[in-house]
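Lecture 7 notes: from sequence to structure.

We start with a single chain of 338 residues. Read the sequence below before looking at the structure.
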Amino acid sequence: MATQMPISAKTLPDDDIEDNDEIEAASLDAAPIELKLTPDACGERLDKVLSNLVSQYSRSRLQQWIEAGFVTVDGHAARAKMTVLGDETVLIRPQAAPEEQAFKPEPIIFPIVYEDTSILVVDKPAGLVVHPAAGNWSGTLLNGLLHHFPLIAGVPRAGIVHRLDKDTSGLMVVAKTLEAHTDLVRQLQARTVKREYLALVWGTPLMNGKVDAAIGRHSRDRVKMAVSENMTAKPAVTHFHRLATGLLDGRPVSLMRCQLETGRTHQIRVHMQSIGFALVGDSLYGKAHLASAFARQALHAFRLGLIHPESRKDCEWSASLPDDFAGLLARAGIELYQ
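Now the structure, written as tokens:
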């Protein structure tokens, strides 16, 4: 079947960007710390004693160093729970935390759709993480932005004002100046930024609809988000329109155009799953036996519109489907004219 279609980090909107944990001040060239314990420490746990004596580092950080062998007591490997007598010599060799290497330039390749002195628009490929976080402290879009335009280091989060999931492809706008950053944040807060996605879902939803349901952390699985009535859940609105239907591995699928009013974490994936139409390839929110149909969630941010922060003109960009997504639609017998 075929169908034709045409301020500061703390003020960031919605869940487009999540705050990172505070980064401690350890560095690669930090000098070893030698301590001579006193009788006051007798009977106490080593990690507790050290957290009081070396207060510039958290107890959890010190425990990590102990477990990794970077702390010795009288020349022997230490244990966090060991009881000290109060006359030992402790040697600490501070180590840089992985997150301290996060905000460094790296030659990451990403397509640039548009660039001027204020903003750049990138077509993020699937598989590229946007912002450093646990498990991905390097090799991110942010690292690539710092390499491409070093002055962006002076802008909060290297100009990133919204994000896409690692395995979602498509358009993102990045601010190159503080003024552009502030303006884009305000546009996102005012919900005037136009963000449209293409998604392939299992089943056949209504031709048009809207999901207006708050989203919060899943009550049992903290990796997942979920539609929730909890007081901590945040309002979320997704509009959808069915563009085409097809068959994938003998099962009905539908190509959807989804437009966001808000930018909650995993919003389209959660909202479509909540009404019974999980995204093809979504191993987190879809059914396990169907996850192998595609190597990632079938979601692509294909259109982005906003008011240019400097010229104040209406701007709009579009991005063609990546090859893997286009191949998926071909498998399903769906033609797409962008």
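The chain is about 15% helix and 25% strand. Keep this in mind for problem set 3.
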